[in-house]
Amino acid sequence: MKPSTHIILRARFLLPLAGADKTLRIEDGYVLAEGEKIKEVGRFTPEIAKRILATYGDHLQILGKKGQGPGIPCLNGVLLPAFVKAHGHDHEQPLIGIAKDEPLTAWLDHAVNPFTGFINKQYDSLTHELGVTPHIATYRMARLCDIHYGITTSMVHHCNHNKYHFKEIALVNEWAGTTMIVAIGGQDRHYVAELLDQPEDALLRLEQALSITGLLRTSFCPGPDQIFSNSRKILVPLKEWARKHGTLFHIHSSEEPKTTRWFKEAIEPGKTPVEFAESIGILDEDSVLAHQVNCGPRDVEILAKTKAKVVHNPLANTILGSGMPPIIEMLKAGVPVAISTDGSGSADNQNIMAAARLAAQYQKAKYQDATLLKSQELLEMITSIPAKMLRQDQGELAVEKRADFILLTLDKPNLVPTRLDNVMENIIWAADGSEIDTVVTRGRVLKEGGRVLNFSDGTSPEKIMSTVQRLSELFVEHKKTAPELKGTGAHK
Ligand SMILES: [Zn+2]
After folding, report:
1. Helix or strand or coil: residue 165?
2. How far, in Å, from the CA of 33 to the mean position of ligand 1?
3. What is the predicted pLDDT for the residue at 490?
4. Which of 193, 221, 325, 390 matches a 20 to 30 Å C-alpha distance to 311?
């Protein structure tokens, strides 16, 4: 058989979420990918089938085709753009279910920093035990989960102890086939002492990351951990670096109420994190703030004026009891808002459709207004809006866009009945996340028939899962005798 140069996927429903009319819903639609890009997209007809089969013949990979019968089968599912995650942490995947029912700072002390510190300190022994570095094992698991939920592109905030491991995450991302911006972390105050940087340390990491060769799907930008844990002395040169290199600049902001209050009272007296960020000149259209939960009207004004962008993570914000940001006010003021999952340590899963649903449920209830955040808008907030935010040419199914798309199967009891008039609504309100059947990125199939395929280095999903299962058992064992961390995040 000749190698295929084109991929076609035909499905009962197509939601392009593209062009001037994003409401468009097509019955019996298809996408044809040529290399990394979309060559054709639209309503399917017998004439199109005839032409495509005649033109591409043996070079055509027909997704979902079982047996050797002629033609292009219409799969019982919804074809839509792959999801884009504008804020997450790949180092948290082994932490699901750990240190629950605690606020952010306690959770950092009890879950994230003990785990990332553990895999750094026991790097050699864990590598020996697992047959792979604990970082690679962890990052592989996170990639697997993203693909499982139909996410092909993400901004990974590589914080705390992980900031030193940018080469490993880049490598894993290349193997997984996803697209990633690694926001490399840093901090110089109010954090675990051994992690504190001088500005030149943080800048050096960025330079070292840029010197890694052979990366096709991975890029880097400054990602200081939080505004409270970074002073002007380090934030200003990091933003300068971003401007010089034309990259984004990513940071957690105003996530938790106590920390945000403490910031205004004691860290930068009289200023909210956003007011402080504006005062030192680090906010502009390339600044992407995660959370911005505890956000007043003046903060919203500043965000709108500076054109900074916000990534809302409702799963983490509710589980950690941080509160929920004023999304409706931000949208009214013209602030771009994407919906994301955050890391799996706080959100406990990467089901970005569930994140979109929760965002809408909260705002509808808060304002007692069911008309807020309709399904189409929510789908855009997990596809085209974050794609634009991350400057990725995807998130819409249109000719010449990057061929990143997914098939959501309708062969599930929870999605029956689905028709043209309720297909968008069912994805938000009735899907449970397990329906992602097929995932294609840059014209490469990452998941088909409900199964994530082996990574390009040959690692199977089963191997990835069993390794992380073992790693988590070793961590829990270690935690029993490890001294307790206190004061991470520094709120007293
Ligand atoms: Zn986060």
Report:
1. coil
2. 34
3. 56
4. 193
